[in-house]
Automatic annotation (TrEMBL):
Its cofactor is FAD. PANTHER family: GERANYLGERANYL DIPHOSPHATE REDUCTASE, MONOOXYGENASE. It comes from Paenibacillus agricola. This is FAD-dependent monooxygenase. The keyword Oxidoreductase applies.
Length: 357
C-alpha cells in the first residue's frame, strides 16, 4: 500500500482493551489514524498484574511509550518456584520460552497493573478517535468497504475492520462456530500491599508456590503486589464471588504465612473460571480480521495473552503501511502471527506442567 494510500485508510477497531488500543497506537506510529469503538461507558481494565516481556517493551519504546511504561512497570528479574511449604524448588526463568527471559541486552520482563497498562496505551490517542458506549451489533462487507452497525444505532463505514473484542467476539463467528473451552481451573486475584507480602514475595521478581495443579503467585506492580491463587475446579461458572472461608479451602495445605495473606483481602472476591479458545485456521476476509483474544485467546500460564495482542498490533500496523492492498495486508499479518500464537496457545494449555521443572 503506497504511503499516501495508507495514510488515508479508514480503520475501525472494535474493542477498547489492551489489544485494541495497542493497535491504534501502532497504526498512529505509521501515520494511520484508527477509530476505536468500545461497548463500555467508561474505560477500565479488570484484573491485577500482567507481565510485559522484552519484545513488548521494545515496541513501547518504538511507539514513544517507553518512558511512561517504565514509570509504571516493575522489573521481574527472576521467576522462582517454591513448594506450598515455602521450600525453594527452582528458578525457571532459563527454562521457559525465550520471550520470558532477559534479552541479550539484559532487559528483564516487567510487571504492571492492567489498568496502568491501559492508561499507557490510551495516553497518545486523541479522544476524538475513542468512541465509548458503542456495542457492536453487526457488519456487512462489500468489495469496497465494511459497514458496521452498533446497538446504539450508529453506523460507520471502514476500509478495514479489526476485531479486538475479546474471547466472546461475535465477529469470530465469520471464521468459526467454536465456543470458549473451560480449562478446569479457576483464578482469584487481587492486589496486596508490599508490607503484607514482604516475607513471602520479592520486590523485583515473581514467586510461585505450587502444589500439584494449585498455584499461589505473586509479582510486584506499582503500588503493591499482584496476588493470584489458581486451582482446579469442576465449576464452569464464568465468575463467582466467594468468601474468605471458601478461599481458605483452596490452600489448606499451604504454609501458615501464605494462608495468613488471605486476611488482607476484601471479601467477597471474584473467582473467575479460566477459559480459552482452540486455534483456528483463518482470521481474515478481504477487509475484516481478528486480533488478540478474539483471534487466539489463551490460558495465562505463560503470561503471553496481552504480549501476543500487542505483537499482533505491531504486525498489522506494519502490514497496512507496507502492502499494496488491504487484502494483502491482512494476509501478511495473519501469515506472520497465526503460527506463533497457535504454538503459544497449545503450550499454554499444558496448565499442570507449566512450572514443573
Amino acid at each position: 500500500m503506497e504511503q499516501t494510500q495508507s495514510k488515508s485508510l479508514n480503520v475501525v477497531i472494535i474493542g477498547g482493551g489492551i489489544g485494541g488500543f495497542a493497535t491504534a497506537v501502532a497504526l498512529q506510529n505509521k501515520d494511520i489514524q484508527a477509530h476505536v469503538y468500545e461497548q463500555a461507558k467508561a474505560l477500565g481494565e479488570i484484573g491485577a498484574g500482567i507481565i510485559m516481556h522484552p519484545p513488548t517493551q521494545y515496541l513501547f519504546k518504538e511507539w514513544g511509550l517507553g518512558e511512561v511504561f517504565n514509570e509504571r512497570g516493575i522489573p521481574n528479574k527472576t521467576i522462582e518456584v517454591y513448594t506450598a511449604q515455602g521450600e525453594f524448588v527452582t528458578n525457571v526463568t532459563d527454562d521457559m520460552l525465550s520471550s520470558l527471559k532477559k534479552d541479550q541486552a539484559g532487559l528483564p520482563p516487567a510487571s504492571i497493573h492492567r489498568a496502568h497498562l491501559l492508561d499507557v496505551l490510551i495516553s497518545p490517542i486523541d479522544p476524538e478517535y475513542i468512541h465509548l458506549d458503542h456495542k457492536f451489533e453487526s457488519l456487512v462487507e462489500t468489495a469496497d468497504y465494511v459497514e458496521v452497525t452498533f446497538e446504539n444505532g450508529a453506523v460507520v463505514q471502514a476500509d478495514v475492520v479489526i476485531a479486538a473484542n475479546g474471547i466472546h467476539s461475535n465477529i469470530r463467528k465469520l471464521f468459526s462456530n467454536d465456543e470458549p473451552l473451560y480449562s478446569g481451573n479457576h483464578s482469584v486475584r487481587t492486589i496486596l500491599s508490599r508490607e503484607v507480602t514482604k516475607e513471602t514475595a520479592k520486590e523485583e521478581g515473581t514467586v510461585i508456590y505450587k502444589e500439584g495443579a494449585k498455584m499461589l503467585l505473586m509479582q510486584p506492580v506499582a503500588g503493591g503486589m499482584h496476588f493470584d491463587i489458581l486451582y482446579p475446579s469442576e465449576d464452569t461458572t464464568w465468575v463467582n464471588y466467594i468468601t474468605k472461608e471458601e478461599l481458605l479451602t483452596k490452600i489448606t495445605s499451604y504454609d501458615e504465612k501464605l494462608v495468613k495473606l488471605l486476611d488482607a483481602i476484601e471479601y467477597p472476591i471474584a473467582d473467575r473460571a479460566l477459559y480459552h479458545r482452540q486455534p483456528i485456521l483463518r482470521w481474515s476476509t478481504k477487509r475484516i480480521t481478528l486480533l488478540g483474544d478474539a483471534a487466539h485467546s489463551m490460558l495465562p500460564t505463560l503470561g503471553q495473552g496481552a504480549n501476543s495482542a500487542i505483537a499482533d498490533a505491531d504486525a498489522i500496523a506494519r502490514a497496512l503501511s507496507e502492502c499494496a492492498t488491504v487484502e494483502e495486508a491482512l494476509q501478511q499479518y495473519e501469515n506472520e502471527r497465526r503460527p506463533v500464537t497457535t504454538a503459544i496457545q497449545n503450550e499454554s494449555q499444558q496448565f499442570d506442567k507449566a512450572f514443573d521443572k
